[in-house]
């Protein structure tokens, strides 16, 4: 059976219009992919390399350290009766952290007190005896030898008092150590010995926990001797007071920004590493930084009064290094190798060679341009 399609004039008109609209839309899509001017050249965003006075930095790895790190230790023997803190919390200097069984040390204090009382009683006795002997000597009732013996007895009694006082002081100190207090303020680590355990701290102090003063921190880093020579630049020595507000950065962006004030340089170069240690202080904001965190220190070492700058996002890289797509006076694109320096104001990069001030370069659509291609530059700031 044959099928016969009867197309009216109106149907034919619709088909023609549909074909035209489809072709027009396809042409528009192609234009969106790569905008072209009336001569067929794609419109590409281009900027000029600018010049500015820029502070130069050396980026160096370092580590964050607490201003003070103090171990909490047990100095006596005995059972730990209580732990009075939670690991990670802030403790204040003098706060009671542990109590240790104290019976033995209380007994020692009482014994030392008794020995001291006995020594003082003997001293009183020999003092009176010596006075009597001296009077008797005046009446020739005793010999000089007997007086000398009385003087010796008094000296021994005085020595016994000193020894008993020392023993009492030691006993009281040991008893005091049965209550372990925070030696400094800061954030305390988790305990290493829980309540109920026995500690032997008399022979060697036993570390129970560690307190970190994270309010004020230090950034410590090292530079090589050649970098040091470049930093001082003939000034006769690194002047710590000049290096204020040295920028710091971390592996991941933090809520707060940080800078350090350098205050210390080691007095000599470490011959084994050929490096010099520098230390700066910084204030911890919201307890955000922790002891042991890695940090990158951006140490200023000079000023480039006429640094050439390009947008950092415009740089490409391959096995040979960095490059820009530069644009000549005929609007042709060139693959131009460049040498770069540090980042400036987070978005600009210093270029030390490869492009001159005012030189034009492609800023966007890097994948849509090819060396030798003629483009229609669209200038951007």
The side-by-side strand order for the widest beta sheet comes to 2-11-14-13-12-15
- Choose one word for the global shape: elongated
Task: State the low-pLDDT regions, or none.
Answer: 1-34, 234-238
**Helix/strand order:** HEEEEEEHHEEEEEHEEEEEEEEEE
- Helix content percent band: 25-40%
Number of helical elements: 4
Specify Rg, calculated over alpha carbons. Answer: 42 Å
SSE-based structural type: alpha+beta
Outline the structure in words.
- The chain is α+β, with helices and mostly antiparallel strands and 381 residues long.
- Helix content is 27%, strand content 37%.
- It has helices spanning 9-33, 103-138, 144-176, 225-232; strands at residues 43-48, 50-66, 69-74, 77-83, 90-91, 96-100, 179-181, 186-188, 198-200, 206-212, 216-224, 246-249, 258-265, 275-283, 294-311, 316-318, 321-327, 333-344, 348-353, 360-362, 376-379.
- The chain has a 6-stranded antiparallel barrel. The protein has a 4-stranded antiparallel beta sheet with strand order 3-10-8-5, with no helix packed on it. Strands 7-6-4-9 form a 4-stranded antiparallel beta sheet, with no helix packed on it.
- Helix 2 (103-138) runs antiparallel to helix 3.
- The longest helix has 36 residues, at 103-138.
- The model is unreliable at 1-34 and 234-238 (pLDDT under 50).
């Amino acid at each position: 059976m044959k099928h016969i399609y009867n197309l009216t004039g109106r149907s034919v008109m619709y088909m023609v219009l549909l074909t035209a609209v489809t072709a027009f839309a396809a042409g528009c899509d192609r234009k969106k992919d790569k905008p072209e001017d009336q001569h067929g050249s794609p419109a590409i965003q281009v900027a000029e390399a600018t010049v500015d006075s820029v502070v130069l930095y050396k980026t160096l790895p370092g580590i964050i350290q607490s201003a003070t790190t103090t171990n909490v230790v047990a100095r006596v023997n005995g059972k730990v009766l209580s732990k009075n803190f939670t690991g990670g919390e802030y403790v204040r200097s003098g706060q009671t952290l542990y109590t240790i069984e104290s019976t033995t040390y209380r007994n020692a204090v009482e014994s030392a007190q008794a020995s001291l009382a006995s020594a003082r009683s003997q001293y009183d006795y020999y003092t009176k005896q010596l006075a009597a002997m001296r009077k008797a000597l005046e009446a020739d009732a005793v010999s000089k030898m007997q007086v000398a013996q009385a003087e010796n007895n008094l000296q021994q009694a005085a020595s016994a008092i000193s020894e008993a006082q020392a023993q009492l002081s030691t006993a009281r100190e040991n008893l005091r150590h049965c209550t372990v207090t925070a030696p400094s303020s800061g954030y305390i680590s988790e305990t290493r010995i829980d309540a109920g355990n026995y500690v032997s701290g008399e022979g060697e102090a036993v570390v129970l926990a560690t307190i970190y003063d994270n309010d004020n921190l230090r950034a410590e880093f090292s530079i090589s001797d050649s970098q040091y020579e470049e930093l001082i630049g003939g000034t006769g020595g690194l002047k710590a007071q000049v290096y204020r507000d040295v920028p710091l950065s971390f592996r991941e962006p933090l809520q707060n920004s940080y800078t350090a004030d350098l205050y210390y340089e080691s007095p000599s170069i470490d011959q084994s590493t050929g490096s010099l240690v520098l230390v700066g202080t910084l204030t911890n904001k919201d307890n955000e930084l922790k002891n042991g965190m890695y940090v990158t220190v951006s140490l200023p070492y000079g000023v480039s009064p006429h640094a050439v700058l390009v947008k950092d996002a415009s740089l490409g890289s391959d096995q040979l290094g960095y490059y820009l797509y530069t644009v000549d006076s005929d609007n042709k694109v060139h693959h131009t190798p460049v040498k770069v320096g540090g980042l400036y104001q987070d978005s600009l990069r210093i270029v030390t060679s490869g492009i001159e001030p005012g030189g034009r370069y492609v800023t966007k659509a890097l994948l849509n341009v090819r060396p030798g291609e003629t483009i229609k530059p669209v200038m951007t700031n």
